[in-house]
Task: structure prediction
Amino acid sequence: MSEKTDGKSVKDNNRSVYMQADIIDQINTNQQSNMTLSAYSTITQSYSNVKINNA
Result:
């Protein structure tokens, strides 16, 4: 019985490792898209600040 449980735990560990790798990939793509969005938002904010200072 101990051999069967050991085999199951090894399979479960492998599955969790693969799932964690997929989640990390998703986080990386989300961070890249957030960086581009923040770059655009800073540009729009700088334009709005210029308009406020001129007014």
Observations:
- Residues 2-54 form the longest helix (53 residues).
- The CA atoms of residues 26 and 51 lie 38 Å apart.
